[in-house]
Amino acid sequence: MATAHHDADVYYVPHHSKWPFVGSVSLFVLMIGLVTWFNGSDTAFWVFMAGLAMMIYTLFGWFGDVIRESESGKYNGQVDVSFRQGMIWFIFSEVMFFAAFFGALFYVRQFALPWLSGEGHGALANQFLYDGYVAGWPANGPANVGGEFGTLPAFGLPLINTIILLSSGLTLTIAHHAMVAGQRGKVLAWLGATILLGFCFFGVQAYEYGHAWSDLNLRLSSGIYGATFYMLTGFHGLHVFLGTVMLTVVWFRVLKGHFTPEKHFGFEAVAWYWHFVDVVWLGLFLFVYVL
Questions:
Q1: Peptide bond preceding 142: is omega within 30 degrees of 0, i.e. cis?
Q2: What is the pLDDT of residues 217-231, one digit of tens each?
Q3: Which segments of 72-183 does DSSP mark as H helices, in order?
Q4: Yes or no: domain 77-290 corresponds to CATH 1.20.120.80
């Protein structure tokens, strides 16, 4: 099958693989652990960790097989098109994922809060809520229920993270141009800078969370504001972490001599993902922190 790379009419079909089955079992164990953890089970944490370990094993094994097949020349132009279409649909699913969360934020701010205020009925609606209710943002319940909390200024840590993430997009673009030019040393340098910036972003966000949780009393229980804040920024932070891990894998692959100026979709796919994460952060910075 090594000649398939040179034959445009041959589409590589892999042999039977255990990874879909192993991955399904891993996800099942992971979700059982997570659900029972939320419900206070004493053993749930270890079930969750076992599922996580199984998922990591699946990812290493499955992607390792794909990398070995690619490097052995089994993939041709048709397979490359399939990978590109698959990545496009994956990013589209991620767009819809975040669109649902942004939609929840907009719905609460533009519709739910005005409706709860009575929409022109003034204080009449307050009898159904509590005295002193104001349809403003950030929204919480009564201070003696949800607790008073502070918000993070946009032009502090969030602005620093915006600069970090936009800079990482620039360094990754330079690394991509170096890849196309066949300058492997520059690829390693600029890709390494991107990885460093990714971990810096994650570190700043971890510090921001600690500050918000302990100093500002901003919790998940802090009304709809706390829930949407941690939901949006938390999932984005998870995407940054996963993207940084993927960039690190690509860096080691470049170091091992993988990819060529003509054939490097593994690099491009991660770059697409990273730029998507950049764009999502701009929306978060504007609608969660600034407005």
A1: no
A2: 888 878 888 889 999
A3: 77-107, 113-116, 143-146, 157-180
A4: yes
